[in-house]
Automatic annotation (TrEMBL):
The keyword Membrane applies. It comes from Staphylococcus succinus. The chain crosses the membrane at residues 30-56, 68-87, 108-129, 141-163. The keyword Membrane applies. Signal peptide: none annotated. The lineage of its organism: Bacteria, Bacillati, Bacillota, Bacilli, Bacillales. This is DUF805 domain-containing protein. InterPro entries: DUF805 (IPR008523).
Length: 194
């Protein structure tokens, strides 16, 4: 058995494998990085909440200075969150794909999910521009179907990311969790694992 991936090592592996869409990623690597994301995003969310509350307080008390401070805090938090999300977009998808590989699945579903996400974001922007009040039934149906698709595919992704590693060497490489002791030995057309 190979050594376990720790909290700090998961962060190093995340940035080291920035654009690595090949190979496998252990479950601990994936979930420790999810915890790191939470740690990095919480300050932005706290700043967002403080800015929102400050702006609402300033508006309700007719204090333009307080409202402006709240607006500046909102702007700073949005910039921080946007930069962080853009910086981690590619390595997050790379790690998700490697996690799928670790469970013996292909990268097709994460790429389909990314395609759906991009297309529906564009579609939602068009709908919000043309029908901001959602007066047309077609706009409402498209929005509901989009969110249902996000939920279904998101839950499926979470379930796959919770599954244990495939014990044997698969087409994406040897198991990092169970070590290299299970190597395929070819006997004719069938592979037998030792």
């Amino acid at each position: 058995m190979e050594r376990k991936i720790g909290f700090g090592q998961a962060l190093k592996l995340f940035w080291k494998n920035y654009i690595n869409f090949k190979g496998r990623a252990r479950r601990s690597e994936y979930w420790y990085m999810a915890l790191w994301h939470l740690i990095f995003i919480v300050p932005g969310l706290i700043l967002l909440l403080i800015g929102l509350m400050t702006m609402i307080t300033g508006i309700s008390t007719y204090n333009s200075t307080t409202a402006m401070v709240g607006l500046i805090l909102l702007f700073i938090s949005w910039i921080y969150i946007a930069i962080y999300n853009l910086a981690t977009l590619i390595p997050n998808w790379a790690m998700l794909i490697r996690r799928f590989h670790d469970t013996g699945r292909t990268m097709v579903l994460p790429l389909i999910f990314l395609t759906i996400l991009i297309k529906t974001c564009i579609l939602m922007s068009i709908i919000n521009y043309q029908d901001p009040e959602y007066q047309y039934l077609s706009s409402t149906i498209i929005v509901i179907v989009s969110y249902v698709m996000y939920i279904v595919v998101g839950v499926y992704n979470i379930v796959i990311c919770c599954l244990d590693s495939e014990r044997r060497t698969n087409k994406y490489g040897p198991s990092h969790k169970y070590g290299n002791h299970l190597k395929p030995v070819s006997h004719g057309n069938a592979d037998i694992y030792n």
